[in-house]
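To: structure desk
From: M.T.
Subject: fold request, one chain
Message: Could you run this one when you get a chance? Sequence is below, nothing fancy, just the single chain.
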Amino acid sequence: MLIPRRAFILLILSLFVVSVFSHDKKSKKQDVTYDGRSLIVNGKRELIFSGSVHYPRLPPEMWPQILNLSKHGGLNAIQTYVFWNVHEPQQGQFNFEGNYDLVKFIKMIQEHGMYAIVRIGPFIQAEWNFGGFPYWMKEVNNITFRSHNTPFKYHMKRFTKMIVKRMKEAKLFAPQGGPIILSQIENEYNTIQIAFKDQGSQYIQWAANMAVAQKTGVPWVMCKQKDAPDPVINACNGRNCGDTFKGPNKPYKPSLWTENWTAQYRVFGDPPSQRSAEDLAYAVARFFSKNGTLVNYYMYYGGTNYGRTASSFVTTRYYDEAPLDEYGLQKDPKWGHLRDLHTALRMCKRTLLEGVHSFQNLGPGLEAQIYQIPGTDECSAFLSNSDVRIPATAKFRGVDYYLPSHSISILPDCKTVVYNTQTVVAQHNSRSFKVSQKANSNLRWKMSPEFIPTIRDATVRALTPLELMNQTKDTSDYLWYTTSLQLRNYDLPRRNDIIPVIQVSNLGHAMHAFVNGEYIGSGRGSHLEKSFTFRSAVRLRPGLNNISLLGMTVGFPDSGVYLEHRMAGIRSVLIQGLNMGTIDLTQNGWGHQVGVEGEKHHLYTQGGSHRVQWTEAKGNGTGLTWYKTHFDAPEGKSPLALNLTSMSKGMAWVNGKSLGRYWVSYLSPLGKPSQSEYHIPRAFLKPTDNLLVLFEEMGGNPEGINILTVNRDTVCSYLTEFHIPHVKSWKGPNSKVQTAVERGPQARLKCPNHKVIESVDFASFGDPFGACGNFTTGACVASHTQEIVEEICLGKTTCTLPMDWKKLTKKNEEPCPGVVKTLAVQVRCGHKKKH
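Reply: Done. Structure tokens follow.
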């Protein structure tokens, strides 16, 4: 059964029609247990394909869309953290409304026929502000987070019990008829435990006992916790748990993968990050081939860090490279390739869960993981080539199998390859942003400058600059530091080429400096090094000089030991180059003011925007300026984005709802912003007269802002010809023979949202190269391929193209004989098909 390089045999649709898991919507009570093989739900073993979707990172109006796409991607479970700081922002004051409605979200998961996995934490990290802890916890007397500390354990237990109680009252645990089959306590504690020594060991034992005592009726897990106390299951987080995870700490616990990182979250200043669909699929197939039975994609849909919810320097867009992008659109081929993988693994379900596992060495870097039902011929195999560069041919049970480099082939019957992780048959797509004519047709920008305070305006006085977090208490990013300096004529340099310099040592994260109301510059740290030193020439004058420094955090930290002791803000201020020498202003007496005036007046709301005077905005503006305009909702129903490349740093709101922080002036090593477009959920909009407000900190030109529609209407197929073996029948699960209709290899294209193919932008059969959105012809080009593809595909929602040179060229001779050929097609989808 020889298959050429890049080959792939996809017989999933013709060999085996598998129904995606369907959970009983009638609230059937189900017991959940486990053993060394798998979770056992209502007496049946399950393969769990889960995806992380965080309810606060998308509006409730988008929940059904994301859950539906997740299910159609082959998932049967959704995992979410529980976000303590949004639910209890002030001690004893709770919020479970809107996109914080955890109960509604869990119920909706069940309505979509899926299980739920709830990671209570309550420390979650998640690149979320303060790792999910509410700020008020920092001010509890004698508290030490995540340790055998009485105040911390008191509050952690109280919150955990409160969440469990809410879940029980709504009957959301599986034994009550709900979808929750698994819960998590703590989060990646192993490295923290080392720092706390015995206190850490005692704490983790206490946390496990406390969780189990809640009697939820479902198992508890701890991720990245080598010594998870019984009966809690230790689980793996990482990119390659099939090879790096040493397994559960007891033989009677199953092998679970709670975080399979689908890409990498990004911080401001980062270049783009990728994780290929092929690498992701290889890791999942590897894990299931070695006794794994639950995988969770972190993230399956990342969403958006609205408001001030992102942790230190983390971008507003979260895990955009996941199978579903920030806008809720399928990112292909990742979404489709994983969907096909889930289908292939389900074909092996019975043998994986009930078979006896064995291993066979097939050669250097080659192996077979085999599952056989005792006493039967039911068998599944995973043939792997671990070499990342060189393909190979492996002989398995007397048959030769071609294995591309770094790939695993799945054989549900130990004979027929139905899936190879390295060879993608799923279609590709490319994301496009289009300027909305309707929304941008009448933008009129107005501006209002932010007030620059002096020490006379300060609400809090101290001898030295105060620590920033303790002042803002996570109510604002901003804290003003103000002081004044009285100078005489002879204190100032008399030469024009000598100018005094101000030097500010700052623990982070950023700062804007003003002297006598004039902006003199900005400084910043980074994700890796929060602290920085700001230096700038400064024009001082005889008499009183006012120094106003706007310090800020860009999210609170989210990980590490002694989180409660982290600090930010100004440490020292010097003036250098005066005739009297260097002056240290650190103990000069400082005023402090939390937030900026526009925040206090709620200028980003319809009512608040009338509290100040606005003037027409033209061209480049100065720092600390508020901008506003009104726009109509864009045409159609496509997702929306705000292009802010003409601005610098700040925050944006639509109709009073924050879109999050923007920082387009913080360039990556590639010389481009880490994030240029910012998601505007359509749920935030009215049909007309939508209020868009920006607080710009460093200066920019609002006339360069565009409101965009977002689509993935560029759809592609990239498929290499290969040999399909002659298959008449295949013995599937439960010994039922599935009749196979022999088909040749085919390229399939499908437009999203019932749109039709309006144009064929590229079609080549030969040796084209490139990627979707950027294909180029090679040296081998079959004639008339584009014309043939247009005849087959134009005007259709879906089209199928045969990988047959006789049908892809109008000549009667094979192009480039002896060359393994590839069909690359790129189409543009447009208006919806009329019914």
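Reply (cont.): Confidence is low (pLDDT under 50) at residues 1-25, 723-743. Let me know if you need anything else for the meeting.
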